[in-house]
Design a protein that fits this description.
Blueprint: H1 2-7, H2 28-34, H3 39-43, H4 46-60, E1 64-66, H5 73-78, E2 82-85, E3 89-92, H6 99-103, H7 114-126, E4 132-138, H8 140-149, H9 157-165, H10 167-191, E5 195-199, H11 208-214, H12 216-227, E6 233-236, H13 244-249, E7 254-256, H14 263-270, E8 275-280, H15 289-308, E9 314-318, H16 328-340
Parallel strand pairs: 1-4, 4-5, 5-6, 6-7, 7-8, 8-9
Antiparallel strand pairs: 2-3
Helix pairs in contact: 4-7, 7-10, 8-10, 9-10, 10-12, 14-15, 15-16
The protein binds coproporphyrinogen I.
């Protein structure tokens, strides 16, 4: 599998590429299948999860499928009252803000995500041998931000206030979310995923010092608890140029890099023999053939320079998710270019 080869320092048969949010609104076949079904109900329907996960692999010939799910799925499965609202994202019915709220948070039983593990079994039955299935979970900090804010946020004001003003309460909340994340990832690994990605999408809101003191110990426990399974562990966040080393130090095998930092510079910042993943700006897929060619060539060159600078390998990806308005043809073309250049 090219993706596993790149993640573990071997020479891949071709340059592995997949895209965050490769399933979803950029695909007409996705829009059709989701037209009359809610996001959360779709995530608990194994047939639908299997179909949606495979759609982008069939259409674009990416080297990996990413499980169609969401970072709030394990919270919903554990019993947290929340919804995924179209056009907004996760919305929490009763935000978690007090000691009593934290104490009342449910635990996750692996059986509660049985629909997800069933879907993984179906996907593995259909996915070609040379393509990897990537499982994922939200990291404790990013999950905490939704629970505390009640939904998407720009400033993470309440989250950072709890972190700074009530550190004991913060660490208790993070401990509970870490347990949920570990259970969710272990269930996916037991069901057979080839690699996992921990999304700490919003960690870039923190200074390195705050990340290391208030977040890293919990993410490190997630990585440690799944280490013995031996599947590559990818760690990703947006705007995390200043955190790349800290986010690698928690135990990642592959570090995701957004478009702000060139991959070779990222490899130097990390200073450890991990693979790099990234980092086309998602808007490049909207900018036409000439820009696409130029930017793909640049990222591939940066990937080679990263390997010269000590990275174990390069998995090509965007610096964040495919934008919903992206023409599906541009994604297919990007994959073609990445495999041919
Ligand atoms: O193809 C894939 O990548 C798999 C599908 C996937 C993944 C990996 C979805 C489907 N969600 C996620 C993870 C996820 N969910 C993350 C981490 C990745 C990232 O940084 O983008 C985050 C932060 C969320 C939270 C979330 N869920 C948002 C972001 C809101 C915000 O704070 O700005 C949104 C819009 C959702 C809903 C969602 N998740 C997935 C889809 C296809 C959708 C849209 C569904 C709809 O509108 O009905």
């Amino acid at each position: 599998m090219p993706l596993l080869a790149a993640a573990t320092g071997q020479t891949p048969a071709r340059r592995p590429v997949w895209f965050m949010r490769q399933a979803g609104r950029s695909l007409p076949e996705y829009r059709e299948i989701r037209a009359d079904r809610g996001m959360l109900e779709s995530c608990f329907d194994p047939d639908l999860v299997c179909e949606i996960t495979l759609q982008p692999v069939r259409r674009h010939d990416t080297d990996a499928a990413i499980l169609f799910s969401d970072i709030v799925v394990p919270l919903r499965a554990a019993g947290v009252d929340l919804d995924i609202v179209a056009g907004t994202g996760p919305v929490i019915a009763q935000p978690v803000r007090t000691a009593a709220d934290v104490a009342a948070l449910p635990r996750l039983d692996a059986e509660a995500v049985g629909a997800v593990t069933a879907a993984i079994g179906q996907i593995l039955g259909e996915l070609p041998e040379n393509k990897a299935l990537i499982g994922f979970a939200g990291a404790p900090f990013t999950l905490a931000s939704y629970l505390i804010e009640g939904g998407p946020s720009r400033t993470y004001q309440r989250t950072k206030t709890m972190m700074l003003a009530e550190p004991e309460l913060w660490h208790r909340l993070m401990g509970t979310l870490t347990d949920i994340t570990i259970t969710f990832l272990q269930a996916q690994i037991a069901a057979g995923v080839d690699a996992v990605q921990l999304f700490d999408s919003w960690a870039g809101a923190l200074s390195e010092e705050t990340y290391r003191s208030h977040v890293a110990p919990h993410s490190a426990r997630v990585f440690a608890e799944i280490a013995e399974a031996g599947v590559p562990r990818i760690h990703f966040g947006v705007g995390t140029g200043e955190l790349l080393k800290a986010m690698t130090d928690v135990g990642a095998d592959v570090i995701g890099v957004d478009w702000r930092v060139p991959l070779d510079e990222a490899a130097r910042r990390v200073g450890a023999p991990v693979a790099v993943q990234g980092n086309l700006d998602p808007t490049v897929l909207l900018a036409g053939e000439d820009v696409l060619r130029r930017e793909v060539a640049r990222v591939l060159r940066d990937g080679e320079k990263a390997i010269d600078a000590g990275a174990r390998g390069h998995i090509v990806n965007l610096g964040h998710g495919v934008l919903p308005d992206t023409p599906a043809e541009a994604v297919t073309r990007a994959v073609e270019l990445i495999h041919s250049l």
